[in-house]
Amino acid sequence: MKWFPLLFCLTVAVPCLAQPFAPVNPNASNEARALLAYLYEIDDDYTLSGQHSYNQNPNQFFDRVHEMTEKYPVVWGTDFIWNGMEDPGPRIVEEAIKKHDEGHIITLMWHAGRPTDEPPFRWRESIQGEVTDAEWTELTTPGTALYQRWQAQADTVATYLAQLRDAGVPVLWRPYHEMNGVWFWWGDKKGEDGFVKLWKMMFDRYVNHHNLTNLIWVWNANGPRDIPLDEGFDYHHFYPGHAYVDVLATDVYHFDYEQKDYQQLLDLAEGRVIGLGEVGQLPKPEILEAQPKWAWFMVWSQWLETHNPRGRVPDVYNHPSVLTHDEVDLDF
Fold this sequence. Notes:
Layout: H1 30-41, E1 47-48, E2 50-52, H2 60-69, E3 75-79, H3 89-101, E4 105-110, H4 123-127, H5 133-139, H6 145-166, E5 171-175, H7 195-209, E6 215-222, E7 247-252, H8 259-269, E8 273-279, H9 285-290, E9 294-299, H10 303-306, H11 312-317, E10 322-323
Parallel strand pairs: 1-10, 2-3, 3-4, 4-5, 5-6, 6-7, 7-8, 8-9
Helix pairs in contact: 3-6
């Protein structure tokens, strides 16, 4: 028997005893505040189920979960990646509103192309491309030509997030993920003039210019690893600070649920919510019991079928600590 948490912190005026930290955007919408309060409310007791689908077919793997388990995930996710000829933004907005109205939590990400390139952005050549030190300095210096190109890119995505704001849809927003790895153009840039500067640029642009009050800011790294030429470095080298982050998340593939990495993220969070932004293999029941603070997991698209043993998905979805869509009643 599962105990189902009730959402009781719906407005700014109502204090939430279970929530030690308010949203980092002081003007956060009531819906965003309620979403963050809910994540704190389930802390220690439950993990929300989640599933990613590619934006060209935003229900493909979400529906596949139901076929495998007769349950739907709570969290629906997709990506603003623009690697085809069509801008995916309008389709994402339409589906996100629909999912929100059906009682799901929305998480969105962005595999951004290099600001030096034009769409469509090819995976290896652009998204996993390189930027030189000189280009990085120009990119992160306001007023330069490359900064203006970055700003135009960011503004395009902001227009769609604003449509979700106007529709009352709160979003777990996790841009520039896996920044502690070596495989994306924004990755492996340590220190205040590295990734931290890019994150603060986006935060300032989205919060203070676009007034995107519906975003919960999810800083989403990758599980640390020491594989040569495929490293994921320790989290703290890339963390912009508590003033800019609501939730700390990490990505775990190849069943790499190291307890030391879990503890490292908890230590960095200092009481803030943590989540599994992306996973390949679902965590086994013993992992969920040893690592109870994960607020949600989100399986990456086809990994649901290609990398999970037969029976794993139903077993996890039926676990007492995992909440599915039929078990929650979200009023935000």
